[in-house]
Specification:
The complex is a heterodimer.
Chain A lengths: L1 H5 L3 H9 L3 H21 L4 H18 L9 H24 L13 H22 L2 H12 L6 H8 L3 H19 L3
Helix pairs in contact in A: 2-3, 3-4, 3-5, 3-6, 4-5, 5-6, 6-9, 7-9
Chain B lengths: L8 H8 L5 H13 L2 H19 L7 H18 L6 E4 L1 E5 L19 E6 L3 E9 L6 E9 L9 E5 L4 E5 L5 E7 L2 E9 L2 E10 L2
Parallel strand pairs in B: 1-10
Antiparallel strand pairs in B: 2-3, 3-4, 4-5, 5-8, 6-7, 6-9, 9-10
Helix pairs in contact in B: 1-3
Classes of the chains: A mainly alpha, B alpha+beta.
Chain lengths: 185, 208
Amino acid sequence: MLSEIKRESDDRLIQACRTGDAQAWDVVMEKYERLVFSIPLNYGLSREDAADIAQYTFTHLIQSLDTFQANSNLGAWLATVARRATWRALRRTQREDTAGFEELIDQEAQPQVHDQFERWAQIEWLNTGLTLLNERCRDLLLALYFAPQEPSYAEIAARMGMSVGSIGPTRARCLERLKRLLGDR
Amino acid sequence: MAKEPALTFARLLDWVEGRIPAPAAEQVAAQVAQADPAVRAAVAWLEAFHTLSAQLHIEAPPAATRALLRRRFEAYALQRRTPSLLRRVLATLSFDSGAQALAPGLRSAGVQDAPRQLIYSTELADLALNMLPRAFDQQIDLHCQIFPKQADQPMQVALELRGEAMTSTGVADELGEWTFEAILAGHYTLIMRAGDVEVVVESLELRL
């Protein structure tokens, strides 16, 4: 049932959330929490700051449910809110670090910002594919390729109840599935 | 001559990730160079993915964050269920620590640094509000605790703090507690809903 709901369009999920459907809300969280949390992490913020930004972003969504426009791209909307909150957090950090200086550096003018813009778009793209994978493939690929701790095959096998020898072949199948879901771009 | 292993996706992945030892890896490289466009496209995709995965971290937030957001959604959902008859009760202020006169000597004891506490009473419950200063900014955490008069009566209480420029919502936990975080000083209305009852604290001044 949950897998069917996950494939529901975001419009239908928003409509269900408006009626107070907690299961629909859980699906929204499952689809987009990684995206929203990972944007500030990849800008170099701490996990605590990233959690605050995730709270802020999804709370803003709750407060906007009644006015959220049909056919809007929910993922892009959430990513934009998270990104702006991240920039505000970075500016606050910069002010604290440069206390005593009059001039604030405008983040938007820095050439690195274009790389960062590309980065969050990449996270959103990957998250779309990862969300559509089954849970086992998603957990395996996240552990193998995106976890900052870089767990070993043995650690992953223990956590996921797999044999170490099966991780290699399973990762290939899961990655091939991800490639099909994402297309060749 | 031994037949070369087929260029399956799994073999290409192992090759891109450097998991195939040298002589066999060179063999794969030669095969890829001669392979059809679909194989070369798969290699390009894998190489791009490999580069991307080295640059990005993707992970889920802590479970506590998800739980907190779930509760905020539940508060929103509670408000959506409009009861047929809503009984509105205004809470009365019965204690304000900020209005207590300080006895001589208490200033040096740091009493003025204690969080400001307000207690409101209704026929259904008492409400304790503590205004806690935040360490790094001028904002306030407002900690709320509800004490039902009938202690054995479980209830789900949704809270809403309404100010001029913001509204924040939450659901009290099993101890009847909830904290509104990072609130600016000012005047607010606090509304608590449980079942068909709405308890309102009007003209709530948040200040340290």
